[in-house]
């Protein structure tokens, strides 16, 4: 089996850009979910009494809702599952803080 440079060049030109763009979008969703985790964990464990600012939480959730809707339109199951699980985890952490 010979190595064909044209096949490798086509893969890099066509597939790698799409894979990288999808990976960056997925990582962006994870980082948005992780934005309030340290503050929420500090509230749950009693290390802090200051919740995250409301504008930060509203902007973060707005961005996640838009990314979730985009994933639904594109039928991107990985992002649908990731963002959905992130919403569940965030809601559970908020409930733990609220009902503590």
Radius of gyration: 19 Å
Question: How many separate domains?
Answer: 1
Order of H and E elements = HHHH
Mean pLDDT across all amino acids: 87
Structural class: mainly alpha
Relative strand content: under 5%
Number of distinct helices: 4
Shape: elongated
Q: Major sheet: size, sense and barrel closure?
A: none
Low-confidence stretches at least 5 residues in length (pLDDT < 50)? none
Helix content: over 70%
Total strand count, please?
0
Taking the alpha carbons of the first and last residues, their distance comes to: 64 Å
Oligomer: single chain
Detailed description of the structure:
This protein has helices spanning 5-34, 37-45, 54-74, 77-98. The chain has 100 residues and is an all-alpha fold. The chain has one domain (27-98). Helix 1 (5-34) runs parallel beside helix 4, helix 2 (37-45) runs parallel beside helix 4 (77-98) and helix 3 (54-74) packs antiparallel against helix 4 (77-98). The protein starts with a helix and ends with a helix. The mean pLDDT is 87.
In short:
The chain is an all-alpha fold.
Secondary-structure map with pairings?
Elements: H1 5-34, H2 37-45, H3 54-74, H4 77-98
Helix pairs in contact: 1-4, 2-4, 3-4
């Amino acid at each position: 089996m010979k190595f064909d440079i044209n096949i490798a060049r086509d893969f890099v030109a066509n597939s790698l850009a799409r894979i990288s763009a999808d990976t960056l979008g997925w990582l962006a969703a994870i980082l948005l979910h992780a934005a309030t985790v340290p503050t929420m964990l500090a509230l749950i464990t009693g290390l802090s009494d200051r919740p995250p600012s409301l504008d930060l939480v509203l902007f973060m959730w707005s961005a996640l809702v838009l990314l979730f809707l985009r994933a639904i339109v594109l039928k991107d199951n990985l992002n649908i599952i990731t963002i959905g699980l992130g919403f569940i985890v965030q809601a559970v952490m908020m409930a733990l803080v609220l009902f503590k």
